[in-house]
Amino acid sequence: MISMKQLTGRPWLAGLVAIAGFAATFAAGAADAQAAPSATAAPPASAAADATRGVDQDVQVLKKQLVDLNRDLFKLEEELLYPASTQVAVFLSVDVGTFFALDSVTLKIDDKEVAHYLYTDREVQALHRGGVQKLYLGNLKAGRHEIVAFFSGKGPHDRDYRRGATLLLDKEVGAKYVELRISDRVTSLEPEFVVRQWE
Amino acid sequence: MSFARHCRCLALLASASLAFAAGTAGAQEPARDLPPPTQIKDLDYGDVLFHFFQDEYFDALVRLEVSRDFKRIPHHEAEAELLSGGLYLSLGLYQEAEDIFNRLLAGPVPQSVSDRAFFYLARIGYQRGYYDNAWRSLQRIRGPLPGQLEPERRLLASNVLMAQGRYGEAIEQLNGWTDKSVWADYARFNLGVALVRSGAGPQGREYLERVGTMGAQTEEQYALRDRANLALGFDSLQQKQPAAAVAALNRVRLDGPFTSKALLGLGWAESDAQHPELALAPWLELRKGKVLDAAVQESYLAVPYAYTQLAANGQAAEQYRQAVQAYAAESTRIDESIAAIRQGGFLDSILEAVPRTNDVGWFWQLQKVPDAPHTRYLYQLLASHEFQEGLKNYRDLRIMQRNLEQWRTSLEAFDGMIAAREQAAVEREPRRQALLAKTDLPALEARQSELAAHANQIKASRDVGALATGDEAREWQTLEQLEKTIESLPAGPQRDALAERARVLRGTLVWRFDSEYKVRLRSVETGLQDSADALAEARLRLALVQEAAGTAQGNTAAFAQRIAELAARIDGIAPRVEATANAQERVLANIAIGELEAQKKRLANYTMQAQFALASLYDGATGGTK
């Protein structure tokens, strides 16, 4: 009599090969952080491979052209809407920022609110890593202007914290850059908020 | 390649370009482990980094190109070049990236920059299978790379060595690796797998065992540990070592991505160890899963197999019948999926299911796609690297298509603005003409000359009386009339007394003129200078007003031309994006259909096995009766 095991035909090898994950574990070979070329993957039929390669090359060419096109569109937009003679750009940066967790910023120019921004965790993290946010881009006439920024968030001991900082800006002909900077005042264990002009 | 690794790949490729980059999947690293940020000397470069650190690579790249064109990042030129290479790489533009790194290395760059450029080149070489080139680039890195880049370099080096079959040197790389980073665990895992595959099983299992028993803290480490245990478990099964397999597979988490495979293997290990009753537990648990999972499919055969081992043939037969039904139902669903995919548009659900940002982790979101015929197997298809890359391309193209549509709308608005500016210029023209008409600048200039000449004459002759005030001039005139009247009077003491008083008055007035002369002359000269300056300003403004119409027309015309050119470029490229996205979809559809047909074949095979087993059971039962 044939054994039950033989009769049922254990789906052993078929099963193992079928389980893509297991196959991939050994086939791809590398659990690295890279797109390791699969040494054991069956080569696709040449027509299909050619089609894939062809599309991939088309995509690469297109992406490069799209980057260039977007660059030119960005430049046009800025030159048209914010000409250098009247342009003012306000940036926000965080230096260390141990004593303050940023939630939002409100920006006023000559007592008129021009920007209000709520930050996501991801954005705050990008600021902590050295990114600088272009918070506002606009136009100002030559002359004296008052720039006021209100920072809201959590201060020391997780308390709600809201502070303002002011700058009197003498706008001349030419683009003007302003930086809102959040840093730590180590001596008082308090955050410090500074608004300054870039020359 | 796993999805997690793919995600890490994107993040790392680009972040590697920065001295202060956190390296390993930055978002997962605690902020305190980050090196202090580099001093930003150009705010626009900081803006690029702001988007880069959020994995918004396309935005970061465009802003970088714009800022460079505007010459706004002069203090970060080399870094910016390196970053642009990394960004092109993360967008899948290998050739562009490679050209940038080679160009960068051809010039004089600091070692910190050249080291990272060589690292990138090594990575590209490895990814494209040029291992010798990759190794040469790695050899040219002189110093330790910053932050998490250094362990990644070592991992890359060990991977290249393994790819070249130089296992001994790869082991040397690992042996000197003392830090506790997850990179070393990856390297151990890779080496373990490579050794097992090369026939050095015991040595390979030793490395896998170390990873499989490591203390994990992050999800990434847990997943890696699971993979190591899964690999160990199945290898032990193949080596006919069920006890070792059970030990390894029991270490796999019950709620991870490898759970179903581990449950299946665990059942087989128990079965091999002649413990069918123990094998049933994991298999029955596994059978509760979705039939589209290959391990679940196999459990439909494994469960009745265990029953037969336990001589519970009635239950086994029932289970085989259920298996046949389940396979048939699944096969029908696959047919529906193939038909739906053939209809086209099956990838559009991806764009609806995932966030519109360039989040590198978006592949994970595909687990949540609706259970519709065209999307049901999408997540399983992602096991294929080729499918992942194609899907990324497709998604990128669709996002860029939306981006082009937004620009098209903006350009229409810009066009409107230009038209409004032209209209305003037309409306200003009569006022401009009127102003020009009534402004007689030459007459004013002539008058200025006359006054200046007169002042010079006064100064030359020191004519103090010429600078008398109105009252003084009247007084002087009155005095002269009085003197004439006095002269006409009869001579005598009275006339002499009056003449004397007139003489005193004259002296007083002359003294006053004389004493005030210098101040008055300076005042006149200052006034003349002011009016000369005002005339010069007027000349300038008049010239501007005269030119204004022409300049405004020129500006608006130049902008209008640029808008028209860019609109034409959008019109030209948009159909190509559409065509390429469709071509990409066709390629992916073919891959998907190929994979689904393979699944169908497997199901057919399983069905045949189940039917055969069922027949055998009936046959055995009949034989027993006989």
Note down, in words, how this protein is organized.
- The complex is a heterodimer of chains A (199) and B (626).
- By secondary structure, chain A is of the alpha+beta class.
- Helix content of chain A is 32%, strand content 37%.
- Chain A has a four-stranded mixed beta sheet, with no helix packed on it. A four-stranded antiparallel beta sheet of chain A has the order 3-2-5-6, with no helix packed on it.
- The termini of chain A are far apart.
- Chain B has 626 residues and is mostly helical.
- The N terminus of chain B is likely disordered.
- Chains A and B meet through helix 1, helix 2, helix 3, helix 4 and strand 1 of A and helix 1, helix 2, helix 3, helix 5 and helix 6 of B.
Summarize the structure.
The complex is a heterodimer of chains A (199) and B (626). Chain A is an alpha+beta fold and 199 residues long.
